[in-house]
Write a structure and sequence with these properties.
mainly alpha; 5 helices; about 85% helix
């Protein structure tokens, strides 16, 4: 149960990323969050929306795994691994802060999930 709750929290985090990147990228919260100028946000809005969509896929996969229960453990592990890889790459290519925001919660959730297998 604790593992599934942690997975749901990771999924909700990615729903939040989806909203930020798809709908708020060029709004005050999006500009502040990503430290963008209005001009840069305007030119990168389509790319950000695409990135947000991928975050939605991650959230959907995680939630589907939770929905499947014990039979969904492969979904949970796969999508948590995807989140971790994305967080590691983001930390490498953009900001180390991404590792703590994105990868660390997924690492915790994966650890808890592996304890239930």
């Amino acid at each position: 149960m604790i593992a599934d709750i942690s997975i749901i929290l990771v999924a909700l985090l990615h729903v939040y990323f989806l909203v930020l990147e798809m709908f708020l990228w060029d709004k005050p919260l999006g500009l502040k969050t990503f430290r963008n100028s209005a001009e840069k946000a305007k030119t990168t809005k389509v790319l950000a929306a695409n990135q947000g969509l991928y975050n939605g896929f991650l959230a959907g996969g995680l939630l589907y795994g939770v929905y499947l229960g014990a039979e969904g453990v492969q979904f949970k592990i796969f999508f948590l691994a995807c989140v971790i890889i994305a967080g590691v790459y983001g930390a490498y290519s953009v900001s180390k802060k991404i590792f703590y925001i994105q990868a660390t919660p997924a690492i915790v959730a994966l650890g808890l999930t592996m304890l239930t297998v």
